[in-house]
Amino acid sequence: MSALTKHRPWLAAILGLILTGLGHLYLRRWRRAALWVLLTFAVSAVFVPPEAFDPLTGGATIPPSEFAAVLRELAPILAVSFASVLDAFFLGLRQAAEAQAQADRSAAEDADTDASTATVADPEADAVTCPECGREVDADIDFCHWCTTRLDEPTDR
User: What one-character DSSP code corresponds to residue 51?
Assistant: First the structure.
């Protein structure tokens, strides 16, 4: 697993903390990011009174006595944002696991193929795949016309 794949879930979560939906954008989940942003706006419109934003937009510092009350009023938005961060983190974990599984399958397929012989894709067809580039070539010629690798006769296993 590459270093980027290992750090990807954490980076998505950190970006999600900065701005709701940003972690999903980093993971290239465009619709999911839009859904979280829309959900945040919907929760804001339905559950948060408009006056709750006044202390944040006023430019003045919020006194400690009012800070808890402001946080309580903004709790629905913060809850949705936190859920978005968790979703981005677990989505990043799942993508990392899928990337690792794909790499493992690819490594297993590479180990199974013999680089010195071409394999027949379909016994009834005349198509042969090149062991070097993997493209189909004509069985009548003894080299790959894509990458010029010499093809030997396939051996039965």
Answer: G
User: Which pair of structure tokens corresponds to residue 11?
Assistant: 């980076």
First and final CA of the chain: distance in angstroms? 33
pLDDT, tens digit, for every residue of 9-49?
999 999 999 999 999 999 999 999 999 999 999 999 999 99
Crossing angle of helices 75-112 and 64-73, rounded to 10° = 60
Per 3-state DSSP, the chain is made up of helix, strand and coil in percentages (nearest 5) of: 60, 5, 35
Of 141, 121, 36, which is closest to residue 129 (Cα–Cα)? Answer: 121
Q: Do 71 and 78 touch, CB atoms closer than 8 A?
A: yes
Which residue has 């993997």 as its token pair?
134
Q: Is 141 exposed, middle or buried (0-12, 13-18, 19+ CB in 10 A)?
A: exposed
* CA–CA separation, 88 and 20 (whole Å): 10
CB 126 within 8 A of CB 140: yes
pLDDT for 155 beyond 60 = no
